[in-house]
Recover the amino acids of this structure.
C-alpha cells in the first residue's frame, strides 16, 4: 500500500491525493500501532529529594523516580526545560551495566552513574539531545541520575562524590536548594 502511495507522488495529477493518503496512513499507524502509548505526566511519577555531597558542600535535588520499565523508557523525553534543582533517578533492583540514550529527549542532560554505595563512578556531561548514541556505565551501577545539562560543571559535581538517598541506604535531611 505504501509503495503504491509513494509511486503516486511521481504523477503531478495524483500528488495531492497521495499526500492526503500518506497523512491518513501515518495518522492511523500512530493511533492503531500496538507500540504507541501515551506519555505519562511527570507529576504522576513518584518523587523524592536527594543530596550530592561535593567538595563544596551538599547540593539538593528533587527527583522523579523512573520506577517501572515504562517510566524508564519515557525518562525525560519531550521535556523542553528542566529546572536546575530537579532531575530523574533511574534505580535498578541490583547493580548492572546501564545503557542510556537521548532519543526524543529535547534538552542536554548530565548523566551520573552511581554505584550501590551511592558513589558517583562516572559522569557523561551534556548528552546530545535527540541522539541515538548509546551511553553506558563503565561498571555495574545501582542507578543513573539525570540532571540539567551543565549542572555538574556549575556545581562542581565530580566522580567520587557521594549521593545520599534512601536507594543507597543513606537517610537525608534538609531542604531542597532553591
Amino acid at each position: 500500500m505504501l509503495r503504491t502511495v509513494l509511486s503516486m507522488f511521481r504523477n503531478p495529477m495524483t500528488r495531492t491525493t497521495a499526500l492526503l493518503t500518506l497523512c491518513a496512513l501515518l495518522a492511523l499507524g500512530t493511533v492503531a500501532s500496538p507500540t504507541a502509548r501515551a506519555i505519562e505526566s511527570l507529576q504522576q511519577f513518584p518523587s523524592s529529594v536527594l543530596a550530592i555531597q561535593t567538595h563544596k558542600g551538599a547540593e539538593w535535588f528533587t527527583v522523579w523516580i523512573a520506577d517501572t520499565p515504562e517510566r524508564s523508557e519515557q525518562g525525560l523525553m519531550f521535556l523542553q526545560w528542566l529546572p536546575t534543582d530537579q532531575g530523574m533517578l533511574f534505580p535498578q533492583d541490583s547493580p548492572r551495566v546501564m545503557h542510556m540514550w537521548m532519543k526524543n529527549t529535547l534538552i542536554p542532560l548530565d548523566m551520573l552513574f552511581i554505584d550501590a554505595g551511592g558513589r558517583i563512578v562516572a559522569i557523561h556531561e551534556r548528552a546530545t539531545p535527540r541522539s541515538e548514541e548509546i551511553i553506558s556505565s563503565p561498571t555495574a551501577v545501582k542507578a543513573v541520575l539525570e540532571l540539567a545539562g551543565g549542572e555538574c560543571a556549575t556545581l562542581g559535581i565530580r566522580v567520587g562524590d557521594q549521593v545520599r538517598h534512601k536507594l543507597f541506604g543513606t537517610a537525608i535531611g534538609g531542604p531542597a536548594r532553591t
Summary: Strands lie at 47-54, 57-65, 86-96, 99-100, 109-114, 120-127, 135-136, 141-148, 162-164. The CA atoms of residues 46 and 142 lie 18 Å apart. Residues 1-9, 22-36 have pLDDT under 50 and may be disordered. The radius of gyration is 21 Å.
